[in-house]
Specification:
By secondary structure, the chain is mainly alpha-helical. The protein is built from eight helices and no strands. 36% of the residues are buried.
C-alpha cells in the first residue's frame, strides 16, 4: 500500500479536483507556475469548488501577486455568496442570515472576506481592511476565522 503523506483535507470534492489541488500544494514552492496552473485548472473544471479559490489566492498572496490574489478572493467570495444565498455585498450580511459558520459555504464567506481584508492591507489599503475587519468581528465574535490575527497586524502597521 502506498503511503499518502502531507495531504491537505480540502473537504468533499470530486476526486479529480482534489487531485489537482493536492498536486498544486505539493509543488507550490518548487514550481510556483505549475501550482498556479493546477489551482486555476481546478477552478475552471469546477467553478463551484470553493477550496480551489482559497488555494489559488493563498498561493498568489505568497508570491506577492496581490492584485491577482484579490481578484481570485473576490471571485471565490462571489461564488460562496451564491452558494450561501446571501448578498454579494458583504457589508449587508447579518449574523442571523449566515447560519452555521462551521459549514461550507458559510465558512468560506468568512475566509474569503478575511483574505480580502488581508490582501488589501498588504496592498496598502488600511481603510478597506478596517471595514472588512469590523464586519468579520460582528459576524464572528468568537473569532473562529482568526480575524484577531489580522486586527493585530493592522494595529502593528498603524503604530509603525
Amino acid at each position: 500500500m502506498e503511503e499518502q503523506e502531507d495531504l491537505v483535507d480540502f473537504g468533499p470534492l470530486p476526486p479529480h479536483i482534489n487531485a489537482l489541488l493536492q498536486q498544486g500544494v505539493a509543488c507550490h514552492r518548487s514550481d510556483p507556475a505549475r501550482a498556479r496552473a493546477l489551482f486555476g485548472s481546478a477552478i475552471q473544471l469546477a467553478p463551484d469548488a470553493l477550496p480551489a479559490y482559497r488555494a489559488l489566492f493563498k498561493h498568489l498572496n505568497r508570491l506577492r501577486e496581490f492584485d491577482a490574489a484579490l481578484e481570485v478572493a473576490a471571485t471565490g467570495l462571489l461564488e460562496a455568496t451564491r452558494q450561501a444565498g446571501v448578498s454579494p455585498d458583504w457589508r449587508l450580511w447579518r449574523r442571523a442570515e449566515l447560519g452555521d459558520l462551521q459549514e461550507a459555504p458559510q465558512r468560506f464567506l468568512l475566509q474569503f472576506l478575511k483574505a480580502i481584508a488581508f490582501i488589501q492591507l498588504r496592498r496598502g489599503q488600511p481603510a478597506i481592511t478596517r471595514e472588512a475587519l469590523a464586519q468579520l468581528q460582528a459576524l464572528d465574535p468568537e473569532d473562529g476565522c482568526g480575524a484577531s490575527v489580522l486586527a493585530a497586524l493592522l494595529d502593528e502597521m498603524e503604530d509603525a
